[in-house]
């Protein structure tokens, strides 16, 4: 492996700890600097990880930073990405690619013009859970895929997140927040989406923060919090989706994929691993051993995957995939409001399968 890619993180809130932990075991990347609007927080994280704390402007201009890892809230994703691209940096951001599709397109267009790379979460789909399921589909273990179901039902993130405001404004909601895991997994398993129909509801105008210093504070809700729909994949397979912040509990599988000769239970796409179960026609449920994907992966493996992919080659957690996923989700919300089927204009390649291995580049 060559020199590690030097990473500058903008936004070191709740999720940053998972990236920082993964970077310590990945040779392909090296933490150079961090920045946050909360400068004391940036300094604390920098000191704990032997990196430099900078202002956002200084980090974006820093010659040592090769890639800006954008872990800010969705409303800031496009602005930070565009500023990083203007500074000539590669960018990799948390999901969604942007809070709105027009902004996401602007990011991809600017990156193309500047000749820099755009990566985007989720990279959970590169772990052994989704990759083993994908290999089962590709190896024909369920025959021709016909349909999938995807269910994410929970009471809402305000119960545990200390600053949950962003989950209830555009760019959030159960679909834009959790949908990227599910739709990216469905595209990985069944290929890109051609059109969508949907229905959605906005059940409450406010939520109450359940933990942290702001516990008890009421926050506004301006998005749909129960979203359902059907995605018609280009292959003809149909995926039925339910994403809800309005449910107390569920026993539905996160994802099931059904083919002409078998059914698969796919583990939680918000996790990297988990049990894949197959029921072949005429047989019984059996657990498939991990057969593909990065073993023991965590958030940040998608950055390392980009870092170890030669320039000009397609890396897996890429902006075109994230854009297609975002367009599919925004089309679903439009379909729900307009009561009509909506064509998804973009498409993308299914990212390359990940052979079973410990880390990108090995
Ligand atoms: N919390 C989770 O469990 C989780 C899981 C997966 C993905 N994500 C995604 O990660 C992203 C961040 O989520 P989080 O939970 O860490 O949020 P957070 O609010 O805990 O942290 C965001 C951080 O970004 C900083 N920030 C915001 N705007 C900024 C700007 N313009 N410039 C510099 N810093 C800025 C904030 O000060 C804060 O420290 C979101 O896109 C979210 O969807 C979160």
TrEMBL record:
Keyword check for Oxidoreductase: yes
Residue ranges of every copy of the GFO/IDH/MocA-like oxidoreductase domain listed in the record: 130-264
Top-level taxon: Bacteria
Domain Gfo/Idh/MocA-like oxidoreductase N-terminal, residue spans: 5-119
Oxidoreductase recorded as keyword: yes
UniProt keyword annotations, A-Z: Oxidoreductase
Official protein name in the record: Gfo/Idh/MocA family protein
Organism: Glycomyces mayteni
């Amino acid at each position: 492996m060559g020199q590690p890619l030097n990473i500058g993180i903008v936004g070191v809130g709740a999720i940053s700890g998972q990236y920082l932990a993964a970077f310590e075991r990945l040779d392909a990347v090296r933490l150079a600097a961090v920045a946050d609007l909360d400068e004391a927080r940036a300094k604390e994280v920098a000191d704990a990880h032997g990196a430099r704390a900078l202002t956002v402007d200084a980090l974006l201009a820093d010659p040592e930073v090769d890639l800006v890892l954008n872990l800010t809230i969705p409303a800031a994703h496009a602005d930070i990405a565009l500023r990083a691209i203007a500074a000539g940096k590669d960018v990799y951001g948390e999901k969604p690619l942007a809070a709105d599709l027009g902004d996401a397109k602007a990011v991809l267009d600017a990156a193309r013009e500047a000749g820099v790379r755009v990566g985007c979460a989720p990279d959970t789909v590169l772990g052994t859970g989704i990759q083993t399921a994908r290999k089962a589909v590709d190896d024909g273990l369920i025959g021709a895929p016909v349909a999938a179901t995807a269910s994410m039902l929970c009471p809402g993130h305000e119960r545990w997140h200390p600053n949950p405001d962003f989950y209830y404004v555009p760019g959030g909601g159960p679909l834009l927040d959790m949908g990227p895991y599910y739709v990216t997994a469905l595209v990985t398993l069944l290929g890109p989406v051609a059109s969508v129909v949907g229905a959605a509801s906005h059940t409450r105008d406010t939520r109450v923060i359940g933990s942290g210093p702001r516990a008890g504070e009421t926050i506004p809700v301006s998005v749909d919090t129960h979203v359902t729909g059907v995605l018609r994949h280009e292959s003809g397979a149909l995926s039925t989706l339910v994403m809800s912040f309005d449910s107390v509990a569920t026993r539905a599988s996160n994802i099931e994929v059904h083919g002409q000769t078998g059914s698969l239970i796919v583990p939680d796409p918000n996790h990297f691993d988990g049990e894949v179960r197959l029921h072949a026609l005429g047989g019984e449920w059996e657990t498939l051993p991990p057969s593909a994907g990065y073993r023991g992966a965590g958030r940040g493996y998608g950055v390392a995957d980009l870092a170890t992919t030669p320039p000009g080659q397609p890396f897996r957690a890429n902006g075109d995939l994230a854009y297609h996923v975002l367009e599919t989700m925004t089309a679903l919300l439009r379909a729900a409001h307009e009561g009509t089927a909506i064509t998804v204009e973009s498409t993308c390649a299914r990212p390359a399968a990940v052979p079973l291995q410990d880390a990108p580049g090995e």
